Amino acid sequence: MKAKLFFIYQGLQFGLWGAVGLLLPLTSFPWITQRFNIHSVAPAAALPLGLLILVWFLPYTITSVGRLPRQAIPLLVFIFIALLSSLLSITLPLPPFRSPNVWGNIREALLTLGVGVAFYLLTATWFNTSKRIEFLLQTIQIGGIVIILWSFVQAFFWYTQKGYPAWMFAIQSHLTSNGRLFEQRVTGLAFEPSWLAHQLNLLYLPLWLAATLKRWSAFRFRIVGLSVENLCLLAGGAVLFLSFSRVGWLAFLCALAYVILRANLVLIRWLRDQLQKRLHLNLARWVMGQAIPIGMGILLIGIYIGLFFSAGYVLSRLDPRMRDLFRFEFLRTEGLAGYANRLVFAERLVYWQTGYRIFSDYPWLGVGLGNAGYFFPQKMVAFGWALTEVQDLMFRQTFIPNTKSLWVRLLAETGIVGFAVFITWLYVLWVTGRSLSHASSGLQRTLGWALWLGLIALLVEGFSVDTFALPYFWTLFGIATAASTLKPQLSGG
Fold it and tell me: Is residue 442 scored above 50 in pLDDT?
């Protein structure tokens, strides 16, 4: 009887984790937004994850075997700082702007942080075998394939009919809280195109690119000699392009640049070693050993600059928002704010400046999670009041505004202390990726590279998204953390 109950209990856990992996593409599930009065960020995967907390994580933590990975220590410290900052915000002169329910706003902000942390901790602790990790990766990739297919359907109808049939809007209304389909831009199963780019860059593309680099796959079969990850990388890259998310493009290009840079460093070392082997004089060997890296470095910098301007040129031709990208006379005549306005980027710049002003007034612990928006009327830069989007946000919307940047939000709401601890956590994860990259297991090496690529993408995406509730980087970092605990972990080096 005990064996049967244990089998059922294990099956339930696998079933719930399978649901988590499959539901990750849904960023704003209507069933959640309607019942919990949430505006936009409501990942459907939080439903089975909540059941896993009750079914497995709580019993796990209260028993003697319940242990958290050491990578979670900085994150736990950050949670304490966020709580402390939020509690101390009662002593601050919060302006009476829009919502009198300050504690309700703080509670919602802490809840979003709790959702993200839950994704990380549960993923980092439950997946204690390579088989479990492979199972989750398989379900995640199936969800990624659904994103790709639905995005291609959207692109097909837009580029062939310049519109979408009614049945597509009906389906989208059951998948996202706004039920919206965008002109020219695919949105997949996400709330908006930028969120589609975010989920691709912070979970799916790092896994697919890392698996391709390390020649590893969660699936045993091949299609015309290509793995599922190879095909998904190509198709996922196309979907990212069709999202027309400028920050999303930049994040992926930075991840690719890191891969190319690592390959270039390997090439430089190989050329240096080959030439030094053929030189007999010590002086000549020393000169070549110094000249080759310097010369190749200068050449590569030139190539990267050329690629950057080439990408900018293509972008200015494809995206109407970027048509004035290379018209630098606007930077001289209208200033940075005016130049950003012509690139349809000024609003983001204004939000960041406002958040930084809040941080300047409360530099140590910030104003508490969810409270930065209360200071917007006081700290908004003068140029911002002339922007239509800002006017709509300040005078017509009913919700508390935000900084539109994770990094600015961390500074404004948790201060330099919270920001430093969060960055420390990310650094610990980077070191974890370095350890995984030397592992004997192809799975671990793949996840080490995926972790690196995800961290690089987060650096850029953090300037576009400021919520903790989107689960993608939490999930990727949790999987990599779990992989780092597998034994044997390293094969030396």
Answer: yes
